[in-house]
Amino acid sequence: MDTRKVAWHEAQWLNEPPRVDIDGEHLVVATASNGDFWRKTSYGFIHDNGHALLAPLPNGSAVEITYEARFEAQFDQAGVMVRVDERTWVKAGVEFADGLPQLGAVATREYSDWSLAPAPDWTGLPITLRASRSGDALTIRARKGEGPWQLVRVTPLAPDAVASAGPFCCSPQRAGLEVRFTRFVVGPADGSLHGGGLP
């Protein structure tokens, strides 16, 4: 499988944002208010109204998303989403929580779970998220700027599941988070659990 750029118009919006602009090769998005992706756990609610731009992600492939954003309000977030349906999905990226940027992921199979690690030095840098699908696993990695890849999460994904993936963003506490997505590429899955990224 060759690595290729996904044109913004090739993918389909799940909950199109109120503002979407094409700036050269970049996609600039401004979020609606109170958007989020979450199912049940601890909070007791179901939110499925964040913004995601999705293209097919068959088994044996990977997707990388690069973006820039200024996170200022509680739970501002952006990154990559891999989605089977409203009950089965993963989102991963940087989220502003408890006063600082955090690198983490939410894996949802009927119920959401959430893992975070502080990432204060990721502010002001391009952020790249990579989701690699191989066999029964989805492996999430991230890096800031041109730095090394960091493993974020390994989570199950059924080999025969029909999934799609792409950039996502939302801002549960406000409207108007602006995210500039600069790269959306797909290619072959990683050759090993501890691997690199797409060229």
Write the layout of secondary structure elements.
Elements: E1 4-5, E2 12-14, E3 19-23, E4 26-30, E5 37-39, E6 46-48, E7 51-56, E8 61-69, E9 77-85, E10 88-97, E11 100-109, E12 111-118, E13 127-134, E14 137-144, E15 150-156, E16 164-170, E17 178-188
Antiparallel strand pairs: 1-17, 2-7, 3-4, 4-17, 5-6, 7-16, 8-13, 8-17, 9-10, 9-16, 10-11, 11-12, 13-14, 14-15
Pfam family, one: DUF1349
Protein name: DUF1349 domain-containing protein
Summarize the structure.
The chain is mainly beta and 199 residues long.
Features:
DUF1349; 199 residues; 8-stranded antiparallel beta sheet; 7-stranded antiparallel beta sheet; Jelly Rolls; mainly beta; globular
Q: Could you explain how this protein is built, in words?
A:
The structure is a single chain. The chain is mainly β and 199 residues long. The chain has one domain: Jelly Rolls, CATH 2.60.120.200. Helix content is 0%, strand content 57%. The strands form three sheets. Strands 1, 3, 4, 8, 13, 14, 15 and 17 form an eight-stranded antiparallel sheet that branches. The two termini are 13 Å apart. The relative contact order is 0.28. The mean pLDDT is 95. InterPro entries: ConA-like_dom_sf (IPR013320), DUF1349 (IPR009784), UCP022704 (IPR015987). This is DUF1349 domain-containing protein. Pfam families: DUF1349 (PF07081).
